Amino acid sequence: MALNKKTFKAKNNAKTTKKKFLNKTIEHIDVTKLNGIVPVVEAMERMAYSSRDLNRAADIYDRMLKDKECGVILTLAGSLISAGLKKIFVDMIRNNMVDAIVSTGANIVDQDFFEALGFKHYIAPDEFKSGMRDGELREMAIDRIYDTFIDEEDLRICDETTQKIFDGIEPGTYSSRELLNEFGRYLDENGGPKCDDSIIYEAYKKGVPIFCPAFSDCSAGFGLVHHLHSKEGEPHVSWDGGKDFYELTQLKIHNGTTGIFMIGGGVPKNFTQDIVVAAEVLGHDAPMHKYAIQVTVADVRDGALSSSTLKEASSWGKVDTVFEQMVFSEATLAVPLIVGYAYHKGSWKSRKGKKWNSVLEKQAALV
């Protein structure tokens, strides 16, 4: 059973060693305190290759924030929160620099909600990167994400907490946005200082919807499985992926001018680009995403969605080509520069958040 902590309990003789490896925590970068970012990014305009691409991406993001009609959608794929980028996304929400988030479940639940519960990600010693010692980690109930560690026993508590939330919700069918709003409510009622820099909690307070189009592919999935098992034959909570798509499409219909800031690719990227087509299917003349930037290391030669260019997306009628930019860079390098540039340029100061959660709740009340 997914929530059987006993199965993954570190053996007694590994306890002492385990503590030795879980003692140096990942620290989230705070771009609001890095005042020298703007001149660095501006200097890149007169360089070449990826630096000039990054400069243009930063400028496009700043344009999104200056455009009062634009609704900004942030997409997250890859292990970003565990890598130290969480506070950047929290500050984007806090300062009205993003209006909706589309993410993998791992980033939002296994990593952000996990940390909001008081748990940490840890820096792994270099000798573990090769994978040759993963058997030792298994004995100690330590999970590895490249060069970071998670305590598996803590992760099981996160799984159990998601089930507790599902058990406390009125039985019915929900979008991931609605379920994650309940996660935010849980933190509001049961959290403390540890959740002050949580994406879920900040989004809950600011009315920013979070969608996870692959919601069950994370701790929430384990919680749902256990919830369904315990409620067998009884009314229960279930997740509706179609409702996710419909709700995000409704936002595009409601707010025609949109910009997308995509980190990584995968399902969040496709899901967000597709709402233009979905709006058209519903009979609305929806404009393509006016602004689009993507940070990725995916190779354009392999035919994967994650590396398909924004220009290619324009052939599908999803992304306009006037303000679009691919940045082929690893996220922990590029994202602090792009967001830090936009933050210190200050265009967000005169921007009001769209509060799209309220928009969707009002629409639901009319149905």
General form = globular
- Order of strands, main sheet, comes to 7-2-1-9-10-11
Architecture, CATH level 2? 3-Layer(aba) Sandwich
Q: Strand tally, please?
A: 11
Low-pLDDT ranges: 1-6
Strand content: 5-15%
Biggest β-sheet description = 6 strands, parallel
Helix/strand-derived class?
alpha/beta
User: If you compute it from the alpha carbons, what radius of gyration comes out, rounded to the nearest whole angstrom?
Assistant: 21 Å
Summed up, the helix count is: 17
Question: What is the CATH class name?
Answer: Alpha Beta
End-to-end distance, in Å?
39 Å
Percent helix, as a range, is 40-55%
In short:
With 367 residues, the chain is α/β, with parallel strands linked by helices. 50% of the residues lie in helices and 14% in strands.
What does this structure look like?
The protein has 367 residues and is α/β, with parallel strands linked by helices. The chain has a single domain, classed as Deoxyhypusine synthase (Deoxyhypusine Synthase), CATH 3.40.910.10. It has helices at 5-8, 12-21, 37-44, 49-66, 81-94, 105-116, 134-139, 152-167, 176-190, 199-206, 219-230, 241-254, 266-273, 275-281, 310-315, 331-345, 356-366; strands at 71-76, 100-103, 122-123, 142-145, 148-151, 172-174, 210-211, 237-239, 258-263, 289-296, 319-328. The chain has a six-stranded parallel sheet with strand order 7-2-1-9-10-11, sandwiched between helices. Strands 3-5-4 form a three-stranded antiparallel sheet. The longest helix is centred in the first third of the chain and has 18 residues, at 49-66. The radius of gyration is 21 Å and the shape is globular. The two termini are 39 Å apart.
